Amino acid sequence: MGVPWDWNTTGRPGARTAPSALRSRLYSFTIHAPGLGGDVDFAFRDLGDVRVAPGDPRLTYTRIQAAAAHAYKAGASPAVFLGGDHSITRWTIEPLVEEGGVGIIVLDAHYDMRSVTEGLTSGSWLWDLYSRHGDLVDALVIGVSDYSNPPYLRERARRAGFRVVPRLELLRRGVEAALEAVDEFLSRNRGVVYLSIDADHLDASVAPGVNAPTPLGLAPWESLQILLHITSRVRPRGIDVNEVVPQLDPQGVTVATVAKLLLYTVHNTLAKWGDGR
Fold it and tell me: What average pLDDT does range 243-265 have in this prediction?
C-alpha cells in the first residue's frame, strides 16, 4: 500500500512521489535469490495508494489509519507500506497498538521524538505514539547519527524505556551490536512487531535522495544483515519504508537500494515463516 504523503516534511519535500518510484523498481526485480537458499513463490498484492488530502493532515491521518487497518485484515502478512515521510508510521501502526500493543524496530538516523510548537514535522511520530499509548509502545532505534539530533531526545528515549543503538556503536563493535540489541528487544516483545525503515539511516553516498541525507550512515550491507536477522527471529506484522525523495536521487540509486532492502526483508520473512495466508 502506498502512502503518498509528505506535508510533514520540514526539509526537502518530494517523498509523496516515492510510492510509485518504489513500486516500479520492486516490480523490475525477479524472485530468484540464491543467497537466501532458492526461490520463494510470492507476489505483492497491491492495494493501491491511500487517498491523501493535500493540506489536510487530520483527514489524511484518518484515512491512513483506516487503510492500514484494512491492509492488516486483507489476509497476508506482512503488510507493506511505501511512504511518504516518516509521519505515516504514526498511523500505520495505530491499528496494531489498539489490538494490544506493539514492539517497533526502527532503522533511522533520528530519534523521531521531537516536539514542535507550531507546524508539522515528520520527526515526532514516535514520541506522539508513545505519549498517547505509553507502555503499549516499545521501540528499538538503530543507527541514530551523531550531530543530527537535539540533546533532549536522548533523555526522552531513556525515560520511555526505548533502546537506542547509535551509528558509532556499530562502527566500534560491528553489526553484532545491533543484532544483540534485536535479540534483547525481541526477548521482551513476544507479541506484535512492526519494522520501519527510514532511508536516511543509510550513508549519503548510497542514499542521497532522502529528506535528510546522513554522512557516515550505515552501509547497505550492515542494514541487510540487521534486516535478515530481524526477519529470521520474528515475522513483522507490518513493514514500512519512508523518506525517499526520487527527485533528488541521481541515477535512482536510493530508490534501487531501498527497494532491494525491502525485497530481501519480505522474501526472508516468507522463506522463514511462510506466506501468512
Answer: 96
